[in-house]
Amino acid sequence: MAQPVWQDPVPLSLDTAPVPEYGSGSLADLLPTLVAGQEVPGFTAAIPELTPADRNCVFLIDGLGWEQIKAHPDEAPFLHSLLPTSRGGTGRPLTAGFPSTTATSLASVGTGLPPGEHGLPGYTARNPETGELMNQLRWKPWTAPKVWQPYPTVFQLADAAGVHTAQVSAPTFEQTPLTKVALSGGSFLGRLSGEDRMDVAAQRLAAGDRSLVYTYYSEVDGKGHRFGTDSDAWRGQLMYVDGLARRLAEQIPPRSALYITADHGMIDIPFDEQSRIDFDEDWELSAGVALLGGEGRARHVYAVPGARADVLAVWREVLGEQFWVASRDEAIAAGWFGPTVDERVYGRIGDVVAAAHDDVIITASVNEPHESAMAGVHGSLTPVEQLVPLLEVRS
User: What is the pTM of this model?
Assistant: First the structure.
């Protein structure tokens, strides 16, 4: 009887990684398309399926991906009923962009640029000027916002062109650097309750002949991180936000389009050693690594000088069947961060970039105890994380 022949693991081909639809169907294309329809100079309609409206409102629900809505018709009957309206009535989603994480996605929404241009390429990324890891959600350590992200927002340009522009969100976000670089322009109206945000968003939408209003809700993501999307707590938040979306939709004034979207989806990862690979306890993965950035499903790996090739080889050998593992230049060439990467952004991207394919994450129990304890996570290129709705209600 012939003996089985041992074969070395075959790493995932980078050609099999889904690339976000930059330029035609990503979050970065949404606001440019809307304001192009409002005749704001300098913009063209990148998402061809959308019909212009005089008044546009974007309601972004943090963490509520396309697949989560599809899977929960009972908890989200209103949102589920709108699935056929997505992306101009095609019933198709948008893609978030890479990595599929809040700081990156909100910057893409607000600037209308992909990550390689706006320069927020992950949850944490190395600052080439200091060599430190920069948390781009919490903005720590402090970095001059306009140096880190110098482009104007779409809101600022729309406001300058005479469009009535407003953001309606939690008051705590008004002065954050992320808001300043990604979502500022026009008026910021802080409201604590979700119901108040919906009511004020509708009022601001009616306040101009041409209006652009953005509103936001975060707790679907918060409950998903803490308890997972298979929890009663998460389902309760989904039911609540479904009611908020209906409340807003019922109030939009004439000549309006309401777009309900998200910054990413979410996936639950089991709490076992096979599903959670601890970088801080793994001598192979940590060898030659100066800094570990990104997050569990989308890692930026920064090598010590001279170790780049070795780190890439080891990460590909150890993780290559579960992660798409690319060098910085390979990830850029594949278009993960967009069609182009600005020179100032190049060094923020890891020497090695690892994006999860399987239901697995790379934790860091010592250096990232909070993030390592999360039940629900996101960041990679898989459909459950990448695909986001663009549900539409018109008046």
Answer: 0.96
